[in-house]
Specification:
There is one protein chain. Among the domains are: 2-40 and 201-269 and 358-404, FAD/NAD(P)-binding domain (3-Layer(bba) Sandwich); 79-186, no CATH class. It has 11 helices and 21 strands. It has helices at 10-21, 117-122, 128-135, 165-171, 173-178, 183-186, 202-216, 255-263, 325-338, 361-370, 389-404, and strands spanning 2-6, 25-29, 42-44, 47-49, 72-76, 78-83, 91-94, 100-101, 158-159, 194-198, 219-221, 227-231, 234-239, 242-244, 248-251, 272-281, 290-295, 301-309, 312-320, 345-355, 379-381. The strands form 6 sheets. Strands 7-6-17-18-19-16-20 form a 7-stranded mixed β-sheet, with helices on one face. Strand 1 (2-6), helix 1 and strand 2 form a beta-alpha-beta unit. The structure holds flavin-adenine dinucleotide (FAD). Flavin-adenine dinucleotide (FAD) binds next to helix 1 and helix 11.
Length: 405
């Protein structure tokens, strides 16, 4: 069977690898000159930095078992959060990436949790206003689906002073869905989940992966934009005017052209303008990577990620765009002062980016409804409604297995 995988980001590469292991004849197409998509490093002054907070987890592949992973280092996945949303003092908590609020959890009566992001946040009663004010910077919350709260790390909230959280969560499934507990309290006995990062950066990891794919017989086509058309029940692919012929197409690239040209579904929810600020600390940090999610309405920083890359102690900070770079850098300093980080550091660069992670409920319903038509057209969709990359890979690979079997 001939399989075309469109998009050479992480999910496309994993899909190509998986389809090959199932015996398909696979061709991978990527519009850019290199594989990697959003995982590609940012490079300033010849130095690589991770493009935001990015880890690999081995839910989709046992990395110890596959040849392309020889440059991956394995470590315990640590994280925390810093919250100043109407709290008396900023709360810095380990093992919890969600907001941490003062006081006890008092949820509204009969909360609506599976509709808009706005409605779900109203479930937190008198504390909703603070959460809504912070989250509104991600877009219009009454138009966004509640699932958009996942990339914001707002799908649950931790009330640190509530002595009965466990009991509330155990008694009521809705409270369980809305209330967070730090990992060490939730699963005290369990070992910390393992994660992986490439020791020489993602660009080298993808160069290695490209070589592996070529060596096993996958045709890897970079600088190759793919377009599609539908005529009746036949979908055809072209690249630079040339027709590409395949039995199955795995579309992991941007879904907008596929959904609009083939299914007449328009995705119009705006992307989120963000900034990425990267740099190095003057003093060495412990080598285990760590990230803090930041919740503070007066500060544009949303996430601080520290890690070692090629012997350098690096950071990648994510912030809302909109402020001047001067104000953003003051926010970075203010957040660094509150975290256990060295005070001396050098900023290497600021990059403006856009995040395509938001959907309205209508868009999600449209994608779900047309997804029934994908198989009959020979298309395997790229699990765009999932945020986590491992969940995406698992979902796509499962559909590939069904299609090839
Ligand atoms: C800044 C950021 C941080 C994130 N952090 C996390 C995280 O911590 N954890 C997590 O699980 N998820 C995270 N995500 C989501 C995560 O990126 C995705 O789940 C996943 O990694 C995206 O990989 P992908 O291959 O699906 O898409 P992409 O990386 O976007 O790859 C798509 C590829 O398709 C190519 N392409 C587009 N159009 C065409 C065309 N017409 N023809 C050929 N090629 C085409 C593009 O050039 C690109 O290389 C983050 C996303 C962003 C943007």
């Amino acid at each position: 069977m001939k399989v075309a995988v469109i998009g050479g980001g992480y999910t496309g590469c994993m899909a190509a690898f998986h389809a090959h292991t199932l015996g398909a004849q696979v061709s991978l197409y990527e519009v850019e000159s290199e594989l990697g998509g959003v995982l590609r490093d940012v490079v300033f002054e010849g130095k690589n930095f991770f493009n935001a907070c990015q880890y690999l987890r081995n839910q989709a592949y046992d990395f110890e078992d596959v040849s392309f992973s020889e440059h991956l280092i394995q470590f315990d996945h640590h994280y925390g959060s810093l919250t100043r949303l109407g709290n008396k003092h900023a709360r810095l908590v380990d093992d919890c990436a969600q907001p941490v609020l003062d006081g006890e959890a008092v949820l509204s009566n009969n909360p609506v949790v599976n509709q808009s992001a706005w409605e779900r946040l109203l479930a937190y009663g008198s504390r909703s206003a603070d959460l809504i004010r912070w989250a509104s910077r991600f877009g219009s919350l009454n138009q966004l689906d509640y699932r958009c709260l996942v990339p914001m790390q707002l799908s649950r909230v931790y009330f640190a002073e509530d002595p009965c959280l466990d009991e509330k969560k155990n008694k009521d499934p809705l409270a369980d869905e809305l209330l967070a507990l730090p990992r060490r309290l939730r699963i005290p006995e369990s070992s910390i989940e393992t994660a992986f990062l490439p020791n020489k950066g993602f660009n080298k990891f993808f160069a290695n992966l490209k070589e592996t794919l070529i060596n096993i017989g996958v045709s890897v086509n970079t600088d190759t934009p793919v377009k599609l058309q539908r005529s009746e029940d036949v979908v055809s692919l072209t690249s630079r005017g040339e027709r590409l012929k395949f039995d199955k197409v795995v579309w992991t690239a941007n879904p907008i052209p596929l959904l609009s040209r083939i299914f007449n579904v328009k995705l119009t929810t705006p992307s989120i303008p963000m900034k990425l600020i990267v740099g190095e600390f003057s003093t060495s940090l412990p080598v285990v990577p760590y990230y803090w999610q930041i919740f503070d309405v007066d500060i544009s920083v949303t996430r601080v990620y520290v890690y070692e890359l090629e012997g350098r102690s690096c950071f990648s900070v994510e912030a809302f765009a909109g402020d001047s770079d001067e104000k953003t850098l003051m926010d970075v300093k203010s957040v660094f002062d509150q975290l256990p980080l060295p005070s001396r550091y050098t900023i290497f660069g600021i990059e403006h980016q856009r995040r395509h992670v938001n959907f309205s409920s209508e868009e999600l319903h449209s994608i779900e409804s047309v997804s029934q038509d994908f198989p009959s057209l020979g298309i395997i969709p790229g699990a765009w409604t999932q945020y986590g990359r491992e969940e995406k890979v698992q979902s796509i690979n499962c559909k590939i297995s069904e299609a090839i079997r």
